[in-house]
Amino acid sequence: MSILGELEKMSIQKFDRDGNKSGDAIKVAINPENYKETFSVEYNLDQETNSPGKKPKFAKVKPGDITFKLLFDSTGIFDIVGLDLDSTLTSIADDIAGFNPFKDDEADESNIVAEINKIKDLVAVQGDMHMPFELEITWGSLSFKCFLIKLDIDYKLFNSKGFPIRAVATLTCKDSKDDKLRAAELKLSSPDLTHIRQVKEGDTLPLMTYRIYGDSKYYLEVARANNLLNFRDLEPGTELFFPPINKTQSA
Predict the structure, then answer these.
(1) 8 Å CB contact between 223 and 206
(2) What is the pLDDT of residues 197-234, one digit of tens each?
(3) CA 140, 30, 6: angle at the middle one, nearest 5?
(4) Domains in the chain, start-ordered, CATH in brackets?
């Protein structure tokens, strides 16, 4: 415990396909220096033939990415400078001067292979799930549900037996938030974008479809999108998903 409080470590929790936690969360040994969030907005840039041009038409906000780097190190250097507040600068300097990460005793055991394998497991297809784990990354104000879509591991240093003792892993994760939830959070009102609507007393699917698209003829497409077997008897309080519909192709 330091005078600034206990250091919070980034946590990576795995989830199975049913949304249940799978095992204990991975607590990183060394927090990343930073992380980068990336968001993409998609526009329809199609132009009609011989037209003078028109404004790009907003289509959707694509799921975001987050990228960060994790340092893995078993040289022991971070134990020396782990910043015991009772240590003097002179004693720390003396420890570093006498430090040798390549000493032969236990050289084949002091490595980062096990920690790296935990990260590699996050992109492996799980036999009982037939897909990788969904992840939740938490650290301070960051709370991000995602899938790890790219993992780069740069091995930097090796001991005398050839085992890696320092590496930098770059993780790129894709937001895994449900499309319905993302659309609801955006609170969009355009008739050709995704909507979530709650059924009210007296509502029918054709009527609700008319309110969204300006035409009730799309109600069968909405029924298919929601796997409705009996769309003539809607239960009040049910939430229905109204997807974007290409009216040109549906005409």
Answers:
(1) no
(2) 888 888 899 988 888 888 888 899 889 888 888 888 88
(3) 50
(4) 11-177 (no CATH), 181-250 (3.10.350.10)
Q: Cα–Cα distances in Å, from 177 out to 93, 160, 196, 223?
A: 48, 45, 15, 23
Percent of the chain topping pLDDT 90: 33
pTM over 0.85: no
Report how far residue 212's alpha carbon sits from residue 190's, in angstroms, rounded to the nearest whole number.
8
Please tell me the distance from the alpha carbon of residue 113 to that of residue 31, in angstroms, as a whole number: 18
pLDDT digits (tens, 9 = 90+) for 149-169: 999 999 999 998 899 999 999
Distance CA 17, CA 9 (A): 26
Which are the contacts of 130, defined by CB distance < 8 A and separation ≥ 6?
none
Parallel, antiparallel, or unpaired: how do β-strands 239-242 and 26-27 relate?
unpaired
